[in-house]
C-alpha cells in the first residue's frame, strides 16, 4: 500500500495520508510510517504487538513503524487515522535519527523529535495509548477532517504546507496530553481468552451503569468462583477493582478536560454516592477530585 498523497497536477507525492476505519490493520503499512489513530466513539480491545489492550473512546493511539496493531473486539466504534513519515515535520528526520538525535541537530530539530516521543518511546508501561477528554477529541476530529479535505481536494497551491501544518497541530495536542501524570497503568489481558475478552468488552461499554457480579454470572453463563478466578488470573485484579479503576480513569479525564460539576462527573462514570466516589478517587489518584482538577485541568 502506498501511504502517500499524490499531487493531482505535478509529479510529486507527500508521505502522509488520511485513511478510514481499520486500514491500520494492514501489517505492511507500518513498516515506513507512523500511524495516528483517533477513536472517537465506542469501546473494545486492540491487539498491539500481541498484547490485548482494552480501550474506551475517546482515546488515541500513537503507533510507530515497528509495531503491529489490529482491532480484536469492538462495539460501535468511529475511527480516524493518519499515516505520516517524520520527514513531513522536518526534512532531515528519518526513523533512525529521530531516536538517536545526533549532536549536530539544531535545537529546533531536537524539539521536533520531542514532539514525536509518543510514537517512539514505548515500553512496558506505555504502549502509545493516550486517553483524552471530549474537548480534545472534538478538536482532533476537526483537524483530521481539515487534513482530509485539504489533501483530497488540493484546491490551492498551498495544500501541502497547510496539510503539514495540521499534522504539526495534532502532534502539539498529543504532546499536551502525553504526560507521566496522565499515563495510567494499562490493563493488558494476559491470556488470549475469548470469554474474558467478552467480559472486559462488556465492562468498558457499561462502566457507567450499576454492574453486579450476579449479573455477570448470568449474562456469561459462568459461576461466581470460576469468573473471579479466571478474571484475576488474566487481568491481575478483581472485577470490582478493575471496574472502579476504569471509572476513576474516565472521571480524571473528564475533570482535566472540562469544567463540568464534580457531582455530574461522578454520576457519568457510574457512582451514585459522593462519599464512595471521593474515597475511591483518592485511592486511585492520591488526591481529591477538586485537587486533581486544580492541578491538571488545562482550562485553569
UniProtKB/TrEMBL annotation:
Protein name (record): Helix-turn-helix domain-containing protein
Q: Where is the HTH araC/xylS-type domain?
A: 197-295
Q: Which GO terms describe its molecular function?
A: DNA-binding transcription factor activity; sequence-specific DNA binding
Tell me if RNA-binding is a UniProt keyword of this record.
Answer: no
Q: Which Gene3D superfamilies match?
A: Homeodomain-like
Looking up InterPro entries in the UniProt record yields: Homeodomain-like_sf, HTH_AraC, Tscrpt_reg_AraC-type_HTH
Which keywords does this chain's UniProt record carry? DNA-binding, Transcription, Transcription regulation
Q: What is the lineage of its organism?
A: Bacteria, Bacillati, Bacillota, Clostridia, Eubacteriales
Alphabetical list of SMART domains matching this protein: HTH_ARAC
- Whether Transmembrane helix counts among this entry's keywords is no
Q: Which SUPFAM superfamilies match?
A: Homeodomain-like
Q: Which PANTHER family does the record match to this protein?
A: ARAC-FAMILY TRANSCRIPTIONAL REGULATOR, HTH-TYPE TRANSCRIPTIONAL REGULATOR EXSA
Amino acid at each position: 500500500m502506498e501511504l502517500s498523497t499524490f499531487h493531482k497536477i505535478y509529479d510529486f507525492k507527500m508521505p502522509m495520508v488520511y485513511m478510514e476505519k481499520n486500514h491500520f490493520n494492514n501489517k505492511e503499512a507500518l513498516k515506513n510510517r507512523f500511524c495516528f489513530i483517533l477513536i472517537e466513539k465506542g469501546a473494545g480491545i486492540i491487539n498491539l504487538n500481541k498484547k490485548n489492550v482494552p480501550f474506551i473512546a475517546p482515546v488515541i493511539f500513537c503507533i510507530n513503524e515497528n509495531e503491529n496493531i489490529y482491532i480484536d473486539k469492538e462495539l460501535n466504534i468511529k475511527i480516524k487515522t493518519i499515516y505520516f513519515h517524520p520527514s513531513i515535520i522536518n526534512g532531515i528526520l528519518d526513523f533512525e535519527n529521530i531516536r538517536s538525535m545526533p549532536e549536530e541537530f539544531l535545537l529546533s530539530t531536537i524539539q521536533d523529535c520531542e514532539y514525536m516521543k509518543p510514537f517512539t518511546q514505548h515500553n512496558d508501561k506505555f504502549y502509545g495509548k493516550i486517553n483524552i477528554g471530549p474537548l480534545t477529541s472534538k478538536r482532533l476530529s476537526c483537524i483530521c477532517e481539515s487534513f482530509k479535505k485539504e489533501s483530497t481536494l488540493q484546491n490551492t497551491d498551498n495544500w501541502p504546507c497547510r496539510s503539514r501544518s495540521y499534522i504539526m497541530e495534532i502532534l502539539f495536542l498529543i504532546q499536551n496530553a502525553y504526560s507521566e501524570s496522565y499515563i495510567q497503568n494499562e490493563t493488558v489481558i494476559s491470556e488470549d481468552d475469548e470469554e474474558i475478552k467478552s467480559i472486559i468488552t462488556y465492562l468498558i461499554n457499561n462502566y457507567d451503569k450499576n454492574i453486579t457480579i450476579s449479573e455477570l454470572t448470568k449474562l456469561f453463563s459462568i459461576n461466581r468462583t470460576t469468573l473471579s478466578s479466571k478474571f484475576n488470573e488474566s487481568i491481575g485484579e478483581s472485577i470490582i477493582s478493575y471496574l472502579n479503576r476504569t471509572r476513576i480513569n474516565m472521571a480524571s479525564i473528564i475533570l482535566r478536560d472540562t469544567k463540568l460539576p464534580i457531582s455530574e462527573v461522578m454520576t457519568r462514570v457510574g457512582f451514585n454516592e459522593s462519599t464512595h466516589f471521593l474515597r475511591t478517587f483518592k485511592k486511585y489518584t492520591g488526591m481529591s477530585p477538586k485537587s486533581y482538577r486544580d492541578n491538571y485541568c488545562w482550562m485553569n
